[in-house]
Amino acid sequence: MALGLLRRRRSRGASGAASSISVPLPPGAGACGFEVLDPMGQPMGGAEVTVTALDSHRIATRGATDPHGYFIATLPPGSYSVMIVAEGLSPARENLDIVAGVARPTAQVTLQPARQLELPTAGTWLFDPPHTAIRFIAKHVGMAHVHGRFTRFQGSIRIAPNMADSQVAVRIDASSITTGNNTRDNHLRSADFLDVERYPYIDFTSTRFAHLGGSKWTLHGTLSMHGTSRSVGLDTTYLGSINGGYEQELRCAALAKAELHREDFTLNWRSMLARGIAVVGPTVQLELDVQAMYRTHDTPTPPQ
């Protein structure tokens, strides 16, 4: 997979349409491109772009727009979701299909000022697993990044009248880790890494919500993994609430990220290197892409 600032032919017409792109395609790959503009129609450099495979919920690639507002990537054929985020502006989402040998025309996306999002209704909200993803990215020593996720988890959010007093609790089944490679997954479940027989769960419990401005929050809390607990902060973007879903129930959404250091949880990568064991690097990027349903006496049970 290639990602970068590839060759472009800037050919705007009178309508201001986005330029076409000329991309050297690897065998069996296709390409997509975006030109991101701010609300004044000016190029938006530094906007964060995340491309996620719809079938696996795995991040296919991510990066930032260049100073001219462009983001271009080559990808395997398939269906993808693209999210574009910039501070102070409303996120933009769209789906696209990648076809082998085809470079899609550059799509022009204009980000709009972030509306003042109404905070979630006070009460209990439950994670909806089919619409929630818990993902991670780790650098494989001497090789490319490893993308993975956990497929079994449960979570709840208790929204207090004072948002700062709200609480989040997440429990992850550690054995549900998957990276698309059975040998690697079994090794990650072993005593060398997560040791799932002794420590079957990874738990996060928040202690407080800190508002950073706009839709940005930090969730301070405790992460317990591999028999060790550490204080962590989740950088969180609140994406709003809506009525919709199985029975038009009330839903809210958020995206939370954190960087974890494996040695904080006694996962000693240096000793494994000394023993000749190929391992992932010392830091892991964790991401929770959450949809939650407001709990009432008649809220449908989220499917597993």
UniProtKB/TrEMBL annotation:
Cross-referenced Pfam families: CarboxypepD_reg (PF13620), YceI (PF04264)
Domain Lipid/polyisoprenoid-binding YceI-like span(s) in chain numbering: 124-293
Q: Which SMART domains match?
A: YceI (SM00867)
Concerning SUPFAM superfamilies, the annotation shows: Carboxypeptidase regulatory domain-like (SSF49464), YceI-like (SSF101874)
Enumerate the InterPro entries for this protein. Answer: CarboxyPept-like_regulatory, Lipid/polyisoprenoid-bd_YceI, TTHA0802/YceI-like_sf
Q: Which family does it belong to?
A: Belongs to the UPF0312 family.
Q: What is this protein called?
A: YceI family protein
Q: Which organism is it from?
A: Streptomyces eurythermus
